[in-house]
């Protein structure tokens, strides 16, 4: 199955938070980092980047390059606070989130029915609304390309890389842009006349190992747009679920069953990615009077297959009081445990 992966990365993260908390800094060359003589720059605003300032640059050099820069000390606790707010937004989209750093993550949205571009826009909008900050989002069918895409038109970027565009996008790129090719390898390769991905494409497989060591094979694939790394999820979850507010309030059980089916697919996919099985299924509804209700069913056996989730979901749905119209429906599974190899379907 072709995957759909999103990579998100906040823009000038620490500096953007400093501007948010002190609006008089907005649009100015803000440089966050060790302010003492021997300190280094953590990051800086895009305004400061115009002067050649960048992360990891010694502060005294940044002062030379940008004498009117506004140097502010690091407030790590505050950045972590905003970071958790952002991750909460990401986890509200899917539980298949792999955090990479304080401001960066991968999301596997392969099994969400909405169009990936729409999901990306939703993330951007929510982040803006809830934090006032901008995030750049890249979408593609693997991690490498999604990350490349999020960097494509930073700040406040959004970019999708489709499979048929890959050669035209990758071939002209300088090799340093390829994840895994560092400064050292770039220098070495430039020395033998290799500057772009197009130049690198001409090198035979076996030479990649000698240039890049154990990552040789991965880089060989990467420049061809191939990257099979999975989105790694580590957070322990207690339940997995999806919910939606309906476009119009309804009480038609067949229509509601369609939502059960759609969400069951998402849930089965998430369970599979986490190698989990569930024992309990809960349907949450909110009726037109804005009151929330839940109905649960716990089975004797663990279940994880989409057809099983649909069956249990259908059983729970039948028990729901449909006298009032429903405005929101959600399904979740809980009582989770790691799936054993011999696990078989209960049906
Ligand atoms: P980045 O995402 O690399 O940078 P950024 O968010 O500031 O800017 P961009 O728009 O290019 O994404 O890193 C996220 C935060 O991590 C950054 O705001 C500060 C911190 N950081 C350091 O402290 N030291 C470093 O060398 C780097 C690269 C980042
Ligand atoms: Mg960033």
Draw up the topology in text:
Blueprint lengths: L4 E6 L2 H9 L8 E4 L7 E4 L1 H4 L9 H7 L4 E3 L3 H18 L3 E5 L2 E5 L7 H16 L3 E6 L2 H8 L7 E3 L5 H5 L12 H9 L5 H5 L3 H8 L3 H7 L16 E12 L2 H22 L1 E12 L4 E12 L2 H13 L7 E9 L2 E2 L9
Parallel strand pairs: 2-4, 7-8
Antiparallel strand pairs: 1-6, 1-7, 2-3, 5-6, 9-12, 10-11, 10-12, 10-13
Helix pairs in contact: 4-5, 10-11, 12-13
The structure holds thymidine-5'-triphosphate (TTP) and magnesium ion (MG).
Structure description:
The chain is of the alpha+beta class and 347 residues long. The chain is built from 13 helices and 13 strands. It folds into three domains: 1-163, Alpha-Beta Plaits; 166-222, 5' to 3' exonuclease, C-terminal subdomain (DNA polymerase, domain 1, Orthogonal Bundle); 239-338, Dna Ligase, domain 1 (2-Layer Sandwich). The strands form three sheets. A five-stranded mixed beta sheet has the order 5-6-1-7-8. A hairpin with a 2-residue loop joins strand 5 and strand 6 (104-108). The longest helix has 22 residues, at 253-274. The two termini are 26 Å apart. The structure holds thymidine-5'-triphosphate and magnesium ion. The site of thymidine-5'-triphosphate has 15 residues, from strand 1, helix 1 and strand 3.
């Amino acid at each position: 199955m072709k995957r759909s992966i999103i990579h998100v990365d906040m823009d000038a993260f620490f500096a953007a938070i400093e501007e948010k908390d002190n609006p008089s800094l907005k649009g100015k060359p803000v440089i966050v980092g060790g302010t003492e003589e021997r300190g280094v720059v953590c990051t800086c605003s895009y305004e400061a980047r115009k002067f050649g300032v960048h992360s990891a640059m010694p502060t005294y050099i940044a002062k030379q390059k940008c004498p009117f820069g506004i140097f502010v000390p690091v407030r790590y606790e505050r950045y972590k606070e905003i970071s958790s707010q952002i991750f909460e937004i990401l986890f509200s989209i899917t539980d298949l989130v792999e955090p990479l750093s304080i401001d960066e993550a991968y999301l596997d949205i392969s099994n969400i029915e909405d169009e990936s571009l729409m999901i990306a826009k939703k993330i951007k909008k929510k982040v803006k609304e809830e934090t006032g900050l901008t995030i750049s989002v890249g979408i593609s069918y693997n991690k490498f390309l999604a990350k490349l895409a999020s960097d494509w038109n930073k700040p406040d970027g959004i970019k999708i890389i489709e499979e048929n565009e890959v050669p035209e996008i990758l071939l002209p790129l300088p090799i340093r842009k390829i994840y895994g090719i560092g400064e050292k390898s770039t220098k070495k390769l430039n020395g033998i006349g290799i500057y772009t991905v197009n130049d690198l494409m001409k090198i035979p497989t076996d030479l990649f190992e000698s240039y890049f060591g154990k990552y040789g094979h991965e880089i060989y694939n990467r420049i061809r747009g191939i990257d099979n790394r999975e989105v790694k999820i580590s957070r322990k979850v207690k339940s997995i679920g999806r919910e939606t507010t309906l476009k119009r309030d309804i009480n038609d059980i067949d229509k509601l069953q369609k939502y059960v089916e759609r969400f069951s697919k998402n849930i089965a996919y998430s369970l599979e990615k986490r190698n989990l099985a569930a024992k309990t299924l809960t349907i949450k509804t909110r009726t037109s009077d804005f009151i929330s209700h839940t109905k649960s069913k716990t089975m004797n056996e663990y279940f994880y297959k989409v057809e099983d989730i649909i069956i249990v979901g259908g059983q729970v749905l039948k028990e729901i009081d449909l006298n009032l119209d429903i405005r929101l429906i959600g399904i979740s599974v809980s009582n989770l445990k790691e799936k054993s190899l011999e696990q078989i379907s209960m049906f």
